[in-house]
UniProtKB/TrEMBL annotation, chain A:
Residues 75-293 form the ABC transmembrane type-1 domain. This is ABC transporter permease subunit. The chain crosses the membrane at residues 12-29, 79-100, 121-143, 210-234, 272-297. Its main location: membrane. SUPFAM superfamilies: MetI-like. It comes from Neglectibacter timonensis. It is a multi-pass membrane protein. Keywords: Cell membrane, Membrane, Transmembrane, Transmembrane helix, Transport. Gene3D superfamilies: MetI-like (1.10.3720.10). Belongs to the binding-protein-dependent transport system permease family. Coiled coil: none annotated. PANTHER family: ABC TRANSPORTER PERMEASE PROTEIN, LACTOSE TRANSPORT SYSTEM PERMEASE PROTEIN LACF. InterPro entries: ABC_transporter_permease, MetI-like, MetI-like_sf. It is found in: Cell membrane.
From TrEMBL, chain B:
Keywords: Signal. It comes from Neglectibacter timonensis. The keyword Signal applies. The keyword Signal applies. This is ABC transporter substrate-binding protein.
From TrEMBL, chain C:
Keywords: Cell membrane, Membrane, Transmembrane, Transmembrane helix, Transport. InterPro entries: MetI-like, MetI-like_sf. Coiled coil: none annotated. Residues 74-279 form the ABC transmembrane type-1 domain. Belongs to the binding-protein-dependent transport system permease family. It is found in: Cell membrane. It is a multi-pass membrane protein. This is Carbohydrate ABC transporter permease.
Amino acid sequence: MNRSKILAKAKTWFPFYIFMLPGIAYLLINNYLPMLGLYMAFTKVNLVDGIFSGEFLGLQNFKFLTMSSDFPLIIRNTLVYNLIFLILNPIVGIALAFFMNELGSKKILKCFQTSLLLPSLLSIQIITYIVYAFLCIDTGIMNKTILPTLGLDPVKWYTTPEVWPALLIFVHFWMRSGFSSVVYFSSMLSISPEYYEVAELDSASKAKQFWYITLPLLKPTIITLMIISLGAIFKSDFGLFYQVPLGNGALYKTTQTIDTYVFRGLTGSGNLGYSAAAGFLQSVIGFVTVILANWVIRRISPDDAIF
Amino acid sequence: MKNFVAIVLAAFMLVSLAACEQTESSSPSSTLESADSVQSETKTVSGVDNSEPVELTMVIQTDGIECADNAMLDEAINELLNEKLNVTLNIKRCTFTDTRTNMNLWLSSGEPCDVFNSWFSWNTYKDYYADLTPYQDLMPNALEALGNFISNGYNGDQLLGLPAIKDWVSYSCYMMRKDIVEETGMNPEEIKTFADFEVLLRKIKENHPDMYPLTNGTAGRSTLFTSTVNAREDGTQYMTDMCIGTGLGIGLMDPATSSEVSCMFFSDFYKDTIEMAYRWTEEGLMYDSSILNGFEQVVAGTAAGYGTSYKPGIESQETVSCGTEMVAVCMPDPKDGVLVTNTNFNWGVNKNCKDPERACQLLDLLYYDVDLNNLLSWGIEGVHYIKTDDPNIIEYPEGIDASTVSYYSWGKWELPNNYLQYVMAPSPSNLWEEMDEFNMAAAPSKALGFVFDTTPVEGEITAVQNVITQYDPGLGSGTLEPSKLEEFQQALLDNGVQKIIDEAQRQLDEFISNKQ
Amino acid sequence: MHKPKEKTVYLAVSITMLTICALAIIIPIMIVFMSSVSDESTVIKYGYTLWPQKFSLEAYDYILTRFDVVGRAYAITIGVTFVGTLVSMLISSCLAYALAQRNLPGRKVFMFFVLFTMLFNGGLIPTYYFYTTVFHIKNTYFAYIVPNLLCSAFNVILLRNYFANSVSPALRESAKIDGCSEFKIFRSIIVPLSTPILATIGLLSAIAYWNDWQNALYYVDNAKYASIQQVLRNMTNNISYLANTSSVPSASRQVPGLTVRMAIAVLSMAPLMIAFPFFERYFVKGITIGAVKE
């Protein structure tokens, strides 16, 4: 490549680097600089001496996670819930977006969208109270109204671990599906109506249109969101898994995840090295998973890989 | 000269440490006699030059609700401190729910927090405190007010913190609605065992079938104090000392006479209690709520009583919250209260404080100055409270009550010396005398002053703590079948509870032999 | 022939499904609202109900007596949400637009740079350390807006996908030939074509700013300048803390009752319900643009 070509190229792309500058600078300051603090995961933290001057311990902090006899159970819960969310998230989000797209009337659309988004404005404490309003043993709506109407016996919800997988999944979607449906909906709006018009001329059914037009055009969004969720495969929503079941230990079997384990174990000692180690481990596993997933996708359909 | 004083004081410390061994401890409350006369007797401190103005920062906890008059108070406090110590005090008010996080942040970035308390995490925070041993001669009044109890502020031979003077005795009780207890014809003072108590609860249930006779005090906490009491053969109860960690159920089961460390969850008393709790819950005698406090349930009329920790004056305090007269059923006899290591709550000076001498002077003032303490706890006289004929008792000014007053301190109880605070009517005038008597009457635990260093077994503690949260709340509240106890105990063993006990025993033995 | 019929069937199914979902959300929220206007004792005694058993405005009274605190906090949060959302949209969409250029040299590296921030974070303590000791944002207006919320990798990636897949590169090329600068192209061609995604990102970041309590709590010392979520959180959070920490005495009885907590939830939702139509306009505009194009 000769000089003038390089210059021309630089001239073409220079404005785009200016576009990027504020965002990249912000991420450097807000995200990359504090990552130096991950060093705490390998030390005995003493805050007064400074976060980088703790005694170096190597991998010692990481051992505490494996010390529990319930280690396999904790890992299983964390992974299985995340996998379920991973698969159901796009299905629920796209379904809702699809229904919204069918409405046509803007007023009705507005009503539905507002109501679906309401839960994302509620703090986790309030969601906890709402769940409690339904599940409380003696005054809860389930035991007092719904189950008797159906002719069923009351259930001791907060001490029956078996019902919680379904409950947690329900609450998760109750809280989050409005959010993801908005994302999918805006992607759907970007699909040019021409595609559908052509399909109509060929008298393709709605189902076919969805399958052959909408879904393929949503594919990049779906893949991106999935890869992002894979990054959190080892993390869990503390509010959902701890506060919604009222931190009840009797539900441990189906509600204990890595984050709740760390919380329950460290409320007394507050060992910052341990919590940093747990966070670091969660990130590393998420990172490896994302790299793998991206690699696989690049093999199958290079355009959809996100980096 | 200064060194000489320090040596004398160090000698005094040694003597008082030894004195700890004896059952009779000297009263820490010479300040009690008459709050006003103390100031005139105040020991003057020489040797520190106060001519330079100094700015210090102190951290206190609040419930996060901003009081309209905080700024006014800060001004009044600073006026007082400027005059007495030439100190300008910057008060950082910190929501108690976020204390630990905020403290960690401040400490990590070296922000000033010169005088702060350990907020129940002595073990974590003790490394952040400056050694006050060299400054003891600057705090004569604080040391005198604390007496023997200063030993709780020591870590090895370093004085790292000063314990707050408040209720020191670990002791629990059950608050019951007086009218409902009277209906049963039983005398609450005669109830000394769970068997007696069960009779009372049953009678209440008979009279009021739509009510739970007993519930939890604080939302989410167990009603029964399974892990802090133990019982003799006749069923009468006494307090244990969970010196290794309340959450772990590990400590001294008979703290007044034996220094043997064991785990509560393997005791017979625990087994009996959880069986009883299960029975009570099945029969509707007891109910644990995760989101409601005991007093809220009493106000709503769904419960007749709840479990709470005892301190003198509790009856009038709870009567106010419940809106109906309450009476305490004290199950461990008050004489069976135990003076425990309250090292979780100490005041100290930050290692990075630029002027520790002046900070120590401030601490000293906080331990004896009546005006300063009442400014912090009640506000300004005539604005936030008024005095009554009784010199100890205060009231709210006309037209103002606890919910409308424009300054209040959530953390009154955590201020260095509670005994200096006025008493708000209708609490009894002799509240602090009673508190002091209560503190002094209790037998000191063998582990008094001991701080468990968790470092060697932290991984095990994390695992064991998780096991306990899995079983204990359910078993203790009677919602989990007692048959699960074996599973619980096995899980504790699998996760290394024995290693924690052994380590604790080793450290405690060493502590005791060093003391002798 | 069958077309209109099919359309009606889909419309009917859509409305039914959405109605079920909306009811599943609205009924619980109605319960929150109704218990906020109920008498405290009856709520404790009989549980939450869809209609108040005994009507009472005591909870709102309680909050109104603290109006100076609540009102100030509202004002702060509304200001922060407004400014923060605008700045955040600007920074994120510029970054995303550059990343959407398929041939940009180093695109993959920058993409990875952005994505990596979703996987690793230093945690609260180091973040605070650098913001306060290096950038000194403590107790400034930046404290509300800058930490963590200004540019999220998630939003950048969503925007990039939209720009890359839904805005035709041909448009840019032709504008380029007409002599437009890149900045002008972005402003007058790309932005107007991207209203649906910009509205989405705006909404998501407005929700994030509205719900944020951490920045004000950690980076602003004076509780006088608390954000609304922080005030609300302080009023509701104390109970769960007391439950988890056995050593703190329950001496404090300032914790407001159940109905107050519910009233707080209602008040924290209300402003977004008012602001929502503003974003909604842009969604609708997105639809119109699509329809007119043909």
